[in-house]
Amino acid sequence: MRLSICCLCTLLGAFILPCQAALRSIGSERQMFFDQSIQGIVESTQNTKLRLNFAQKFESNPVIKRDKPWESSDMRVSWVIYDQRLGKFRMRYSSRGFRTDGRNEKGELIVIGEGKTAEEKPVVCEAFSEDGINWVKPELGLVEYNGSTANNILPDEACYWYFFEDLHDSDPSRRYKAHVREGSYDGYGMRYYAYHSADAYKWVKTQEAPIIDTGEQHGRWGPATMTGWDPIRKTYAAHMENNYHMHSPTHHRRSIGRAESPDGIHWSEPETIITVDDRDYPDTEFYHLPTTTYEGWYIGFLWIFSTTNTTHEPQFIFSRDGINYDRTYREPIIRRGDHGRFDSNSVYALEPIIHNGEIFCYYSGTNWRSPEQLLALGDKATAGIGLARLPLDGFVSFEGARDEFSEITTKSFDFTGKKLLLNMQAALQQWGAEACEVQVEILDGRHAPYEGYTFEDADTLTTTNINHVVTWNGKSDVSSLEGKNVRLKIRFKNAKLYAFQFE
């Protein structure tokens, strides 16, 4: 009997110790609710579900208006960042085909540098914004148009599409990195060359040899985006169509691959990371994957290409490791516009920009995709630059019921911090004048409330705030629970819950 008891205790100890070691430590990292997998932070829910939130389009879209003679009805955004060096938003956009009236008042063809006329030469332009909404088109003085350089047109040598601001590189002369493509995506002649610049106007070729050459190596690379420095995996990264741009002999649908580089020059062989599955329509292909990193997550907008009706829409996806992406939410996060709108056919979204308590989602929208659509629309064919926005952490939320309380309970964790912050939205606009109510209880590992942090002690939150300070009897200090095994139990109605964080 003694031997049996000893063996039983040994077995129980072997079971308990790993469980104790598995307690998750969240520190002061922001905790989003969108992960429904076994790794997610939420343990149980009552009377609530996670819902995808559609990005709300700017009411005055297109955000860049066609108001210059060198701009056409086909305007598309190629690049937007919040430029840390300049302290403002910075955009590059193209005008792909000039108006057919590219002539001056005398009927003469307007010339734009190097003897090329406005009828035959597209342009890339630059714009700046303090708030991401109101854009200024500066007089760059770099290109002559109709006898004047008072315009925002960029010279050919500054018109690289695939570039990024590299905050990882301490050399100011390499602040911006570009990767310039030559050749076609047929698996035999496409090459990428590396360039760098201090200001994104004057570029220097980093080396003479191509960094990617499909004729000799890296053969599956199709259209690619260099995502820049990956702060999670500590490497430079790129996403591409990992199948010769649909010319793969074994897989005839576009898929997404990832390659990595320690220096931005020497690249690994691409690894396919996203392919279609049983939940996708049979005509689904993946055209592009712009991503950003935020609070330990990779956040991406996967371009869903429907080959039957030739439409594009972005799908919100996320990952912890940059390789295994979760596609739980299959609806488009930015929906196509109504019939007649500039974005009624396709929405080509850039990576989200998280800035000043909001998520900015810029995109190119078109009302055509196929040659047949272009021919049918004629002069009504158009493309424009749109903006859609979400509140901070607002990709997905738990929604409280209207007339009764909902609850979520998290898994056990320990934290670092003195205050608990809750990102929530009062759903008054959706349900009328009823006030929202949100309270938080802090439990121990056995689901028993800690003294002083019960629902009876909890003060009620009733307003929208991205960083609501949670209080109990008017006090916010939770430092006495720091390092302990805790859970959160949140009771709410008429509200959306996005995230929480200890500060």
Overall geometry comes to: globular
Instruction: Kindly report the average pLDDT value.
Output: 87
Number of helices: 3
Strands, total number? 34
Which percent bin holds the helix content?
Answer: under 10%
Cα distance spanning the termini: 52 Å
**Into which percentage range does the β-strand content fall?**
35-45%
Pick out the low-confidence regions. 12-21, 98-102, 112-119
Main sheet: strands, sense, barrel: 6 strands, antiparallel
- Structural class label: mainly beta
Calculate Rg over CA atoms.
Answer: 26 Å
Describe the structure.
The chain is mainly β and 503 residues long. It has helices at residues 2-21, 371-377, 428-431; strands at residues 24-27, 31-32, 42-46, 50-52, 56-57, 75-83, 88-95, 123-129, 135-136, 163-165, 176-182, 191-197, 203-205, 212-213, 224-230, 235-241, 256-261, 271-274, 284-286, 291-294, 297-306, 311-319, 346-349, 353-355, 358-366, 383-391, 396-399, 406-410, 413-415, 420-426, 437-443, 465-469, 487-493, 495-502. The protein has 3 helices and 34 strands. The strands form 8 sheets. Strands 2, 4, 27, 30, 32 and 34 form a 6-stranded antiparallel β-sheet that branches. Strands 5, 23, 24, 25 and 26 form a 5-stranded antiparallel β-sheet that branches. Strands 10, 11, 12, 13 and 14 form a 5-stranded antiparallel β-sheet that branches. The model is unreliable at 12-21, 98-102 and 112-119 (pLDDT under 50).
